[in-house]
Amino acid sequence: MANRPQPSFPEPDTQHFWDGCKAGELRYQTDPDGNVVFYPRGHSTVTGGRELSWNVSSGLGTVYTYSVVRQNRMPGFQELGAYAVAYIDLDEGFRMMSTIVGVDDPTQDIHIGQRVQVEFEEQQGDDAYPIPVFRPV
Amino acid sequence: MAQERLAAIAGIHEYPLRVAPGVSSMQIKAESMKRALDDAGLDWGDVDGLYDALDGEGGGGLGLAAYLGIKPRLLDTTQVGGSSYEFHASHALRDIAAGRCNVAVTTYGSTAASMRVPIGTGGMGRGGASWQQNMEAPYGGTLISNYAMVAHRHMHEYGTTTEQLAQISVATRKHAMRNPEAVKAMTDLQFVKVDEITVEDVLESRVIADPLHLLECCMISDGGGAAVFVSPEIARDIKKKPVWIIGAGEATKYRENGGDITTSAGAQSAPAAFGQAGVTPDEIDIAMIYDSFSITVAVMLEDLGFCAKGEVGRFIEDGHLAFDQPGLTLNTDGGGLSSNHPGMRGLFLLLESVRQLRGESTSQVEGASLAVAHGNGGLLGGTHTGGTVILAAD
Fold first, then answer.
1. Residue-range domain boundaries for chain A
2. Which of A22, B53, B209, B300 can bridge B148 by disulfide, Cβ–Cβ 3.0-4.6 Å?
């Protein structure tokens, strides 16, 4: 099991998103006009209105861009080999930061435009939040 | 030229050391303020405006004036990352023109190297709970990898290559080798090779975060400095020729659903600055652009209007960014890549612009009359700020 930094709570904007990860759902918000709001917030970033609804993404998306980190001095990542950090454009129209798993060599096997699917990576510790990561499809 | 002359930079100081053990950031700030005032021929007691980016131990809006022992009538603690000092120059232009102060200073001090702060590779997300941290901290992104994501997308969309981007590192190092303080910086920070570099050297340096190589990344140093902003009345009687602030622009940009990561906040701040100054990019002699990484400069050359979006690779591949080549000249002090980067480089962009427009640079461009200083604060591939300042010789 992985040991990534966990989200910290109380944090009212992102609580429902992370509860979704425990339920195996990648959740995002829309306002009454259909504007996608992401990262999660208490207001529409287009109108400022506070009436938002939650939706569940298909989890399918495309790699918008990425980098492969060769050096990170932060505990938890220090000992890892090269790993990817990426922006994923989900098919529902939101962009999230994540990582790409399930590749032999991240420096060779990842490319912009690649189709990917979300999965929820279990983390060490009781009651830990699973982390949404992406795997090429 | 018919630009308005409403505020000027009258004095500057760049703290000469990049490794300064046993000195505090606050001491660097105070010493730099004194020396910048000396450079202008002004006194400690003349200062009636104070800008600060909240650096230094026990400083900031509550602590700095007390430490210095001054009582300014204007206090502005704009902190927007490394571009804070372009914002300060912008605010000084506004505030001095409005009669709110006559002699204002901004100071900077940092001991990032002595404190071993891993700015680029330390990882982010160590702060407390926040909407943004909670969404990004689990992935181990570093500051360098954030900028690298911009480089990857730029390469993907426009065919930009590392060979082209390397010209930024090559020109900057050439300038650094002519600047004794930069040579001492690279020596004290134990650079493997304190000499001019080639495109091949950049390509052969190790990758830190794909596609960025070591020689495309700025150093981490100690350092600091100060600038003195004055009204036209004060500017008449200073020791050296004033350098006029003739235009300024500010903007912010961030991760957006469907947004274009290859365009920065500079695309918003630059037109505002050039518009106020009444000049166009093709009139600019000196571009002082925040070179945290090669890609930062590349994106800004486009966003400032020196070439069209996507064209920067072809714009720079002939090597003309060096001071002894015809065409636009970049970062003549050696930049953050090879002279000075204690964390917030924005101040040094103003300082070297002033040196060029006074004729005092170690890589002087003959007859330089217009400079642009553009700072980028924060994360180019995430939330960042852009501050553009246009400066004119007297």
1. 8-56, 59-137
2. B209
- A27-78 per-position pLDDT tens digit: 999 999 999 999 999 999 999 999 999 999 999 999 999 999 998 877 778 7
Instruction: Give the C-alpha separation, A115 to B188, whole Å.
Output: 47
> Distance of alpha carbon B293 from its chain centroid, rounded?
12
- Virtual torsion, Cα B52, B54, B56, B58, nearest 10 deg: 110
CB proximity under 8 Å: A 64-93 to B: 64-74, 76-77, 80, 83, 85-87, 89, 93
pTM of the model: 0.97
Query: Mean pLDDT throughout B217-221?
Result: 96
Yes or no: is domain A59-137 CATH 3.40.50?
A: no
Task: Tell whether B337 is covered by a domain.
Answer: yes
Smallest CA–CA distance from B256 into chain A, residue: A95
**Residues near B65 by beta carbon (within 8 Å), at least 6 away in sequence:** B50, B71, B72, B75
Burial class of residue A42 in the structure, from the number of CB atoms within 10 Å of its CB (0-12 exposed, 13-18 middle, 19+ buried)? exposed
What residues 186-225 of chain B have any CB closer than 8 A to a CB of chain A?
206-212
